[in-house]
Amino acid sequence: MQKWPDVLGAKEQARGPATQVRAASPARLRRQTAPPSSFGLAQGTVTCGLTGKKQILATNFLGLNSSSQIETIVGQVTLDGKGNISGTETFSIDFSNSKVSVTGTYTQKSDCLGTAQITPKGSSPMNFNTVEVNGGKELLLIETDSGTFLSGTAQE
Question: What pLDDT, in 10s, does the model give residues 68-126?
């Protein structure tokens, strides 16, 4: 866990509200470490392992569908280790909820990057790019269908 720098100093902070605090000098600010501009998950030694291993994953997605409606998806899917997906998801689209079964397929390359196609019963397929992280316990997904903005995770 990163500790954010104390740019004002304990003496200035003890004086009271921010309106009474003097700004730190430019030299002092330059000595501080800037906060990270992005995030990531440490991988260490990675062995990708979706192929040949059955996994049951909890899913969580949020974004906009191709009709620019807010879409949230949560549920549980099974990856059978042979490239097939099955499960049940609850879709909340523009504040209307429905629970449906899903099927699909997935692939994974040796660099942990892959694809997934998930088809909710009665709907069109959703296509994703994926990356396996967290020692094979999590997938990061982003939908690649035109006009969508949906991303999420699938975790053991």
Answer: 999 999 999 999 989 999 999 999 998 899 999 999 999 999 899 999 999 999 999 99
Domain coverage including residue 3? 1-37
The SS3 of residue 78 is: strand
pTM of the model: 0.70
Q: Is 130 within 8 Å of 118 (Cβ atoms)?
A: no
State whether 60 and 90 are in the same domain: yes
End-to-end CA distance of the chain: 23
Contact 126, 118 (CB under 8 A): yes
**Paired tokens of 152:** 């999420």
Beta-strand ranges (E) seen in 42-125 are 55-64, 70-79, 84-93, 96-108, 113-120
DSSP reduced 3-state for 105: strand
The contacts of residue 150 (CB under 8 Å, 6+ apart) are 61, 62, 63, 64, 65, 71, 73, 126, 142, 143
